[in-house]
Design a protein that fits this description.
about 350 residues, alpha/beta, 12 strands
């Protein structure tokens, strides 16, 4: 009886808006016949990232795509890994003869170390290995002195007390994602100067073990051979990687990232310029870290994909609306201590809907 080789798994992690989903789409678009299963850990009520990945042009039907994208929709992987991740992996292990690779995209608020440690479980360890943990870095955000929105406020706090930056949950999360990495991608390298990029590289390198490679990318466009086949076997050495999260769980059950809220808002069709202006105002006024979703634009046959980090928004029309599909706007807002009803009311007032 033929013994199946261990199924390689790449875990893609990184802070909010760093470009993880774009990287995964690039990998799927260039799969070159590889049979790949994808697990998406979406923080929020809408499976936005899962829908984006299902639109990838890998030559499969929608039915096939739905069968290969496993979406964990209940939040942080480090909190739910035993509840939902294990059954998904068990199903993939049972089908590993039909698969060549597994890609996992963690939520921007998830910590990678507990996920990698899950591959030490006998039922998974005997069938799978973590080929690499890839951490995607938002280079412009790091260059600005923050890892999400409010660079001015973070910088002001750091000037008052240099230790505050190291006590920040955002910084600790960023550092913990780097601490688990086998490969770091400085993404959006084309959006900052060469001098700033060099400074970001030095800052990131300070958080990494010496053996971890750092590479630069624009929109995650890298050769697939650079991203897979690293053979890191991360599950074997992850316990030796220090993280802030290790200390937070000594004698307590709460997570720093419990402070993050994710709310969803459904709206009718909206003018594109008005919507983006209104979202920018929400970000500035309410400390929203991340915006993602789809918008229905009047008289436009295609759906507008919107992804925002702080006040920086990317948008494009991703696909045509289906004949029987309701043309509505659906958004996810991620931040801290968000007032869902107030935000929706402000957005509707700005759009006059």
């Amino acid at each position: 009886m033929k013994t199946l080789a261990k199924l390689p798994v790449t875990i893609v992690t990184g802070f909010l808006g760093s470009g993880k989903t774009t990287l995964l789409r690039h990998m799927l678009d260039n799969a070159q016949g590889r049979r790949i299963a994808v697990i998406v850990n979406e923080f929020g009520e809408l499976g936005i990232d899962g829908e984006i990945l299902k639109q990838c042009s890998i030559g499969c039907t929608e039915e096939e795509a739905n069968g290969r994208v496993y979406e964990l929709a209940n939040g942080c992987l480090c909190c739910t890994v035993q509840e939902e991740f294990f059954p998904v992996m068990r199903e993939l292990v049972a089908r590993r003869g039909d698969l060549d690779y597994i890609l996992i995209e963690t939520s921007g608020l998830a910590l990678p170390k507990p996920l990698v440690q899950a591959f030490q479980w006998p039922e998974i360890r005997n069938a799978c290995t973590v080929d690499a943990v890839i951490t995607v870095v938002d280079s412009p955000a790091v260059a600005a002195g923050t890892f999400a929105a409010f660079p001015d406020q973070v910088d002001a706090q750091r000037k008052l007390d240099p230790n505050l930056d190291h006590e920040s949950p955002l910084h600790e999360l960023f550092a913990d994602q780097l601490a688990s990495a086998d490969l770091v991608i400085l993404n959006k390298a084309d959006l900052i100067s060469a001098e700033d990029l060099a400074r970001v590289r030095l800052e990131v390198a300070e958080e990494l073990p010496p053996a971890v490679k750092i590479i630069e990318a624009s929109s995650g466009r890298l050769p697939l051979d650079v991203l897979i086949g690293l053979g890191a076997g991360s599950e074997a050495h992850i316990d030796g990687r220090h993280s802030h999260h290790d200390h937070h769980h000594e004698g307590e059950d709460d997570h720093d990232h419990d402070a993050f809220d994710s709310i969803s808002i459904d709206l009718p069709q909206a003018d594109e310029a008005l919507l983006l202006d209104a979202l920018t105002q929400l970000v500035v006024q309410h400390g929203i870290l991340r915006v993602k979703g789809f918008a229905a634009i009047p008289n436009k046959p295609m759906r507008l994909l919107i992804q925002g980090v702080g006040t920086r928004f990317d948008k494009h029309f991703d696909r045509a609306w289906g004949a029987d599909e309701a043309r509505t706007t659906r958004l996810v807002l991620i931040g801290q201590e968000l007032d869902a009803a107030g935000l929706e009311a402000q957005l509707r007032a700005a759009l006059s809907v």
